[in-house]
Design goal:
2 copies of one chain form a homodimer.
Chain A lengths: L8 E5 L5 H10 L5 E5 L11 H16 L5 E4 L2 H14 L4 E2 L2 H11 L4 E6 L1 H6 L1 H9 L4 E6 L3 H7 L5 H15 L5 E4 L8 H8 L4 E4 H15 L13 E5 L3 H12 L7 E2 L9
Parallel strand pairs in A: 1-2, 1-3, 2-9, 3-4, 5-6, 5-7, 7-8, 9-10
Helix pairs in contact in A: 1-10, 2-3, 4-6, 4-10, 8-9
Chain lengths: 275, 275
């Protein structure tokens, strides 16, 4: 059974980071309806065990599926790394993560086949980027390192200045010295640090923004599956749900989305659990 | 009904931070049995709404109460700030938080009645320290500021070096210039940053470690309520429970506790919810 073309694209993340992906969806697919869910009561996923990440991801996916979406986007590197395959098995919908698009773009961009990846502890420990990249190019060498302080820096709004610069140098200079020519920003928060990351890595390292690449992939998939919004599609909407306080999401979220968030709903995932 | 003197002291925190309180309990009350619960599946509480913090705190308290403890210690500034009174109402046990002991020590220490407090967003927003301090001394002036990056810095192990120093200066120099003579470390992670905080504030500002003060208060309360371990008390134990992965808790927790954690159990709070 094909989904309704006018149904929404469902996007979930552990918190606000996925808004960088939503931002790119807005830019590339301005007429699509969207429903965004941020699991702010349990953010961050990046420090949790695989079992817990999968449990939380299932609950988020089930919530969005119950809204009749036509496509599910896991706009969270940690959840994509750990739970994508199992969510694909469980939900009868096109499901996209953020790892594959970033991996593809990295393989296209590299010349010396030395690719760096940065992300949360859980994303890096999962090994999902090296696996995805090597599946596309068996000769590629991947150096992946966790940068746990980048997320709190972004959330605090310290995206430039001495603390951000020194933190970036401490994490990234050893990576730079490995001779990579391409770096995947493997966390949805990191596009906000692109300036300082770019300065630290220098002009010879291509930065891959997985949010941008994921939006491109979503567009492609909508076309292939004939799921694009029809021209006469009515009642355009962009809905937001969080599992905890609206205030913080609104205040910090606008920096990520690049526009105002007018209205935020509260989602109670415990009622939607798919057991 | 008086509790069994040989029952354990139950201690809970959103994660590993409360281990600094447990460490002081071990030092001051080495013969007491203890059960520690870290809600690592949902850490950190400091960025969540009051409703969510209370819900999670009730679940943690109910879990420990079900173990037959003789006293409950909320070793988390955020949960103490927001949920202490309601937990006291709900659970028929002596219950202690970490705010009151820190506030008392600050009032004792200050000479110019200008007291600074640092903590997480949620602790500072709750206003619990200014309220507790002014209840003890109506003339005290309290300047409270959130330092959200301190927790991730400690968890990353960056407790000295340039990043820690610059972060401390950015948060604390404006506070120093207000002329406070006493600073309450209003977060259980902060004792690990005492070195850099002390250097930044200088020798004329007294640092109040709420973990130390809380242990003293626990000892006092055990004596008053005649709840100390009896001399013939047998089967000494120190139990640890977490709601998520043991590995991270073990690796990071030892830095907080100052000794090895031999065995960690997994607690499923969803089964213990007090509805």
């Amino acid at each position: 059974l094909k989904a309704n073309n006018n149904a929404a694209i469902g996007v979930f993340d552990s918190g606000i980071g996925g808004l960088t992906v939503l931002r790119e969806i807005f830019a590339l697919l301005p007429f699509e309806n969207t429903i965004y869910l941020g699991d702010t009561a349990r953010v961050p996923y990046g420090i949790r065990s695989p079992e817990t990440v999968t449990k939380y991801s299932f609950e988020s996916a089930a919530f969005l599926a119950s809204k009749g979406i036509k496509m599910l986007v896991i706009a969270c590197n940690t959840a994509s790394s750990i739970s994508l395959e199992r969510i694909k098995e469980r939900f009868p919908l096109p499901v996209l993560g953020v790892i594959e698009p970033g991996a593809k773009a990295a393989v296209r961009a590299t010349k010396n086949k030395r690719i760096g990846v940065i992300g949360t502890d859980a994303t890096i420990r999962s090994g999902s980027y090296p696996k995805a990249i090597r599946a596309l190019d068996g000769e590629a060498e991947v150096i992946a390192i966790p940068c746990p302080l980048f997320v709190p820096l972004v959330e605090e709004g310290w995206i430039e200045g001495d603390v951000a610069r020194l933190t970036a140098e401490k994490y990234l200079l050893p990576l730079k010295h490995t001779g990579i020519d391409t770096l995947v920003l493997g966390c949805t928060h990191y596009p906000l640090l692109k300036g300082i990351i770019g300065k630290t890595m220098g002009p010879d390292v291509a930065l891959i923004d997985s949010a941008e690449e994921t939006a491109k992939e979503i567009k492609e998939k909508l076309i292939i599956e004939d799921l694009r919004m029809t021209e006469g599609g009515k009642g355009h909407y962009r809905e937001f749900f969080v599992t905890d306080s609206r205030d913080r999401f609104m205040a910090v979220g606008e920096r990520f989305l690049g526009e105002r968030i007018e209205h935020i709903n509260i989602a109670d995932l415990s009622e939607e659990v798919a057991r």
